[in-house]
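Schema walk-through. Below, the input block comes first and the output block second. Nothing else is stored per chain. Lengths vary across the set, and this one has 399 residues.
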Amino acid sequence: MRVGLVCAHAGPSPYADGLVVGTHQHIARVAAELAGRGHDVRVYERREDAGLAEVTEVGGYLLERVPVGPTAPAPTAALVPYVPEFGRWLSERWSGDWRPDVVHGHYWVGGLAAATAVRETDIPVVQTFHSLGVEQLRHLGRGYDGPGERIPLERALTRAVDIAVAQCNDEVDELTRMGLHRASVAMVPAGVDTAHFHPDGEAAPRDQRSRILSVGGLAAGHGQDDLIRAMRLVGDAELVIAGGPPAEQLAQHAEARRLRELAERHGVAEQVRLVGAVPHDQMATWYRSADVVACTPHYSSAGRVSLEAMACGVPVVGYAMGGIADAVVDEVTGKLVPPGDVRTLGVTLRRLLADNAGRFAYGHAAVDRVRCSYTWERTASALERLYERVVGRRRPVEA
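--- output ---
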């Protein structure tokens, strides 16, 4: 099968947030898995650096960089006017020898470009949003900073695709509320690289105190402030916050300064440590160094951090929402607490840190859950069946 995966962003840049970086990692792994299954896969992303080759072979698939938009890093809002041009470029590209059997759009801008490209063809479109503006607005409130046109364009996109892929049950419900028929929504969670994220291996250095690890960008809605407030109830433990800009830039970062001032006001400054950005290939060592990984974002569709932590054998305490609620089995692989309930969060962390046997049992169950239900092989297999289904619907029946 010929598969075209479309992401209108360029590779991760200084403008890219954690979602965009995670989206690129997701697409790359799906492409490699599908190519390994014998499919002819091509990935399309925006070319913002003229020095990069237009076509590169990566992991068994072709990566094509589309020469559309500014030749510099650009935020999502700046890419919206270029969607029609991106779609026309794809349409012309697919009018030659290579024509996809199915197109899979990623993120809302990539989906719009994909739908534009196949508008006058019979090529089916599958769409993964990775996040939904209406859901982010509901959970983040004033912290939501998406482009104003995003939500109406996402609604329009749901009417242009053959099937939408949700990454958690909350997203399934949201897509149906947006007007999609339930039969047009498939739940396919993201996978975890269990060859990289596993319990055995090096761990980042630490002192004798219990360690709580939080991973995520330093921005409103990521929940680090909830954890800092909860530390008053935890006792003698350290909270390590990984994410944001590189460590040497933290002093000039507004959110990092705000979190440190918050820790000072609550009397836990000596317990809170910000380490800045950590390369994804080094994250396993940080997960292994923790006694508990805390996942407290106000919005999370994929629950990637909770899954990576569980794959490393670390129990998770997380807010019962989105992908986290799907990944973490309460009282089996960790603990789920009501979103925003700082008191329950602090008490739960304190009790779990004091329960060595419980953490050991949760960690073992977490590894088993990821290896059984959240591998990239399982994700690719589900997408493969989905592609076959939508292609079969569009293909004319022969006499």
